[in-house]
Amino acid sequence: MIIKTKNYAPEHDFERVLDFLSDTYLETKSLANHFPNRFENDKDNYRDGIHLWEEFDESSNEKKIVGLSTPEKKFLYFIQIHPEYEYLLTEMVEWIVDHFGSIKDDLKKEQKLIIVCLDGYKPLEEILRNQGFEKTSNYGYLRFRDINEPIHQYSIPEGYSIRSFKGKEEYGSYTEAIRKTFGHGEFFNSEVVESINSNTYYNPELDLIIEAPNGEIAAFCTFRMDPKNRITELEPLGTLPNYKKLGLGKAILGEGYKRLKKYNPTLLYIGGAADTSGANRLYDSTGFTKKTRLNVWKKDFQIHFFIK
Question: Candidates 3.40.50.300, 3.40.50.720, 1.20.120.450, 3.40.630.30; correct CATH number of 147-288?
Answer without folding.
Answer: 3.40.630.30
